[in-house]
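Dear colleagues,

As part of the handover before I leave the project, I'm documenting each prediction I ran so the next person doesn't have to rerun anything. This entry is a single chain, and its sequence is reproduced below.
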Amino acid sequence: MPMFASARLRWPIRTLRVAVPAAAACASVLLAALAFAGSAAAQGAVRSVHGDWQIRCDTPPGAQSEQCALMQSVTADDRPNVGLTVIVLKTSDQKSRLLRVVAPLGVLLPSGLGLKIDNNDVGRAGFVRCLPNGCVAEVVMDDKLVEQMRTAQTATFIIFQTPEEGIGFPMSLKGFGEGFDKLP
Protein backbone atom coordinates (compact mmCIF):
# COMPACT_ATOMS: atom_id res chain seq x y z
CA MET A 1 0.00 0.00 0.00
CA PRO A 2 1.58 3.31 -1.04
CA MET A 3 2.18 5.93 1.64
CA PHE A 4 1.52 8.86 -0.68
CA ALA A 5 -0.96 10.21 -3.14
CA SER A 6 -0.14 11.91 -6.40
CA ALA A 7 -2.40 12.67 -9.29
CA ARG A 8 0.28 11.95 -11.88
CA LEU A 9 3.52 10.32 -10.84
CA ARG A 10 4.20 8.23 -7.79
CA TRP A 11 7.23 8.58 -5.57
CA PRO A 12 8.56 5.06 -5.10
CA ILE A 13 7.76 4.87 -1.43
CA ARG A 14 7.41 1.55 0.28
CA THR A 15 7.00 0.54 3.86
CA LEU A 16 10.39 -0.25 5.32
CA ARG A 17 10.54 -3.99 6.00
CA VAL A 18 13.88 -5.10 7.38
CA ALA A 19 14.95 -7.66 9.91
CA VAL A 20 14.92 -6.58 13.55
CA PRO A 21 18.74 -6.23 13.82
CA ALA A 22 18.82 -4.13 10.66
CA ALA A 23 15.94 -2.01 11.95
CA ALA A 24 17.81 -1.41 15.22
CA ALA A 25 20.88 -0.37 13.26
CA CYS A 26 18.73 1.93 11.14
CA ALA A 27 17.33 3.52 14.28
CA SER A 28 20.82 4.26 15.56
CA VAL A 29 21.79 5.67 12.16
CA LEU A 30 18.68 7.85 12.28
CA LEU A 31 19.65 9.25 15.64
CA ALA A 32 23.19 9.88 14.45
CA ALA A 33 21.93 11.45 11.24
CA LEU A 34 19.55 13.67 13.17
CA ALA A 35 22.48 14.78 15.28
CA PHE A 36 24.26 15.65 12.02
CA ALA A 37 21.23 17.64 10.91
CA GLY A 38 21.26 19.95 13.90
CA SER A 39 22.98 23.21 13.07
CA ALA A 40 26.23 24.72 11.95
CA ALA A 41 27.80 22.77 14.78
CA ALA A 42 26.80 19.50 13.13
CA GLN A 43 28.35 16.42 14.64
CA GLY A 44 30.24 13.82 12.69
CA ALA A 45 33.32 14.23 10.62
CA VAL A 46 33.02 15.35 7.03
CA ARG A 47 34.59 12.43 5.20
CA SER A 48 34.27 13.88 1.71
CA VAL A 49 32.52 16.59 -0.29
CA HIS A 50 30.80 15.86 -3.60
CA GLY A 51 29.47 18.99 -5.23
CA ASP A 52 26.81 20.30 -2.86
CA TRP A 53 26.65 17.06 -0.84
CA GLN A 54 28.78 15.83 2.07
CA ILE A 55 29.47 12.38 3.39
CA ARG A 56 29.55 12.61 7.20
CA CYS A 57 30.56 9.74 9.43
CA ASP A 58 30.25 9.10 13.14
CA THR A 59 30.04 6.21 15.56
CA PRO A 60 26.72 6.60 17.40
CA PRO A 61 26.43 5.49 21.03
CA GLY A 62 25.99 1.73 21.17
CA ALA A 63 27.01 1.16 17.55
CA GLN A 64 29.79 -1.29 16.79
CA SER A 65 31.13 0.58 13.81
CA GLU A 66 31.22 3.95 12.15
CA GLN A 67 28.15 4.87 10.11
CA CYS A 68 28.06 7.31 7.21
CA ALA A 69 25.39 9.31 5.42
CA LEU A 70 25.27 11.50 2.31
CA MET A 71 23.76 14.81 3.43
CA GLN A 72 22.74 18.29 2.44
CA SER A 73 20.94 21.00 4.43
CA VAL A 74 19.10 24.02 3.04
CA THR A 75 17.01 26.91 4.33
CA ALA A 76 14.06 28.63 2.72
CA ASP A 77 15.06 31.73 0.72
CA ASP A 78 12.41 33.88 2.36
CA ARG A 79 12.60 32.27 5.84
CA PRO A 80 16.21 31.79 6.96
CA ASN A 81 15.08 30.20 10.23
CA VAL A 82 13.19 27.40 8.40
CA GLY A 83 15.34 24.64 6.97
CA LEU A 84 15.50 20.96 6.25
CA THR A 85 18.13 18.27 5.91
CA VAL A 86 18.19 15.43 3.40
CA ILE A 87 20.02 12.28 4.47
CA VAL A 88 20.79 9.31 2.21
CA LEU A 89 22.20 6.16 3.73
CA LYS A 90 22.49 2.45 3.25
CA THR A 91 21.13 0.03 5.82
CA SER A 92 23.72 -1.97 7.73
CA ASP A 93 22.83 -5.09 5.72
CA GLN A 94 23.53 -3.08 2.49
CA LYS A 95 20.20 -4.27 1.05
CA SER A 96 18.27 -0.99 1.18
CA ARG A 97 18.97 2.66 0.52
CA LEU A 98 17.02 5.15 2.58
CA LEU A 99 16.13 8.76 1.91
CA ARG A 100 15.31 10.63 5.11
CA VAL A 101 14.22 14.22 5.24
CA VAL A 102 14.26 16.06 8.55
CA ALA A 103 11.75 18.92 8.37
CA PRO A 104 11.24 21.60 11.02
CA LEU A 105 8.73 21.17 13.81
CA GLY A 106 5.38 22.75 13.02
CA VAL A 107 4.86 21.05 9.65
CA LEU A 108 1.34 19.92 8.85
CA LEU A 109 1.82 16.16 9.25
CA PRO A 110 -1.22 14.92 7.26
CA SER A 111 -0.03 16.79 4.14
CA GLY A 112 3.26 14.90 4.13
CA LEU A 113 6.40 15.89 2.26
CA GLY A 114 6.19 16.70 -1.43
CA LEU A 115 8.97 16.11 -3.94
CA LYS A 116 9.61 17.52 -7.39
CA ILE A 117 12.68 16.61 -9.39
CA ASP A 118 13.50 19.15 -12.10
CA ASN A 119 9.93 20.48 -11.79
CA ASN A 120 8.37 17.04 -12.36
CA ASP A 121 5.98 16.04 -9.59
CA VAL A 122 7.20 12.82 -8.01
CA GLY A 123 4.60 12.66 -5.21
CA ARG A 124 4.34 12.85 -1.44
CA ALA A 125 5.68 10.84 1.46
CA GLY A 126 4.22 10.69 4.93
CA PHE A 127 6.06 11.70 8.07
CA VAL A 128 7.04 8.71 10.22
CA ARG A 129 7.88 10.47 13.50
CA CYS A 130 8.73 13.76 15.15
CA LEU A 131 11.71 14.19 17.46
CA PRO A 132 12.83 17.24 19.45
CA ASN A 133 14.75 18.67 16.48
CA GLY A 134 12.32 17.94 13.63
CA CYS A 135 9.88 15.63 11.89
CA VAL A 136 11.17 12.80 9.72
CA ALA A 137 9.84 11.54 6.39
CA GLU A 138 11.51 8.37 5.12
CA VAL A 139 11.38 6.31 1.94
CA VAL A 140 13.21 3.29 0.64
CA MET A 141 14.92 4.45 -2.55
CA ASP A 142 14.40 2.25 -5.55
CA ASP A 143 16.64 2.31 -8.63
CA LYS A 144 14.31 4.71 -10.47
CA LEU A 145 14.46 7.36 -7.74
CA VAL A 146 18.24 7.03 -7.43
CA GLU A 147 18.60 7.44 -11.22
CA GLN A 148 16.29 10.48 -11.23
CA MET A 149 18.40 12.12 -8.54
CA ARG A 150 21.64 11.24 -10.36
CA THR A 151 20.58 12.82 -13.66
CA ALA A 152 18.54 15.82 -12.53
CA GLN A 153 19.74 19.27 -11.56
CA THR A 154 17.39 20.13 -8.69
CA ALA A 155 15.12 18.40 -6.20
CA THR A 156 12.49 20.53 -4.50
CA PHE A 157 11.19 19.22 -1.19
CA ILE A 158 7.88 20.76 -0.12
CA ILE A 159 6.54 21.02 3.42
CA PHE A 160 3.18 22.45 4.43
CA GLN A 161 2.40 24.68 7.39
CA THR A 162 -1.29 24.90 6.38
CA PRO A 163 -3.16 22.90 3.71
CA GLU A 164 -2.82 25.88 1.34
CA GLU A 165 0.71 27.03 2.20
CA GLY A 166 3.57 24.94 0.88
CA ILE A 167 7.20 25.93 1.38
CA GLY A 168 9.54 24.65 -1.32
CA PHE A 169 13.18 23.93 -0.57
CA PRO A 170 15.16 23.71 -3.83
CA MET A 171 18.21 21.52 -3.35
CA SER A 172 21.05 21.11 -5.80
CA LEU A 173 21.69 17.57 -6.97
CA LYS A 174 25.19 18.48 -8.12
CA GLY A 175 27.50 15.74 -6.83
CA PHE A 176 24.68 13.45 -5.69
CA GLY A 177 25.64 10.54 -7.98
CA GLU A 178 29.33 10.73 -7.11
CA GLY A 179 28.57 10.96 -3.38
CA PHE A 180 26.05 8.14 -3.56
CA ASP A 181 28.62 5.88 -5.25
CA LYS A 182 31.19 6.61 -2.51
CA LEU A 183 28.76 6.05 0.35
CA PRO A 184 30.05 3.10 2.40
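Confidence is low (pLDDT under 50) at residues 1-42. The first strand starts at residue 45 and ends at 50.

All the best with the project,
I.
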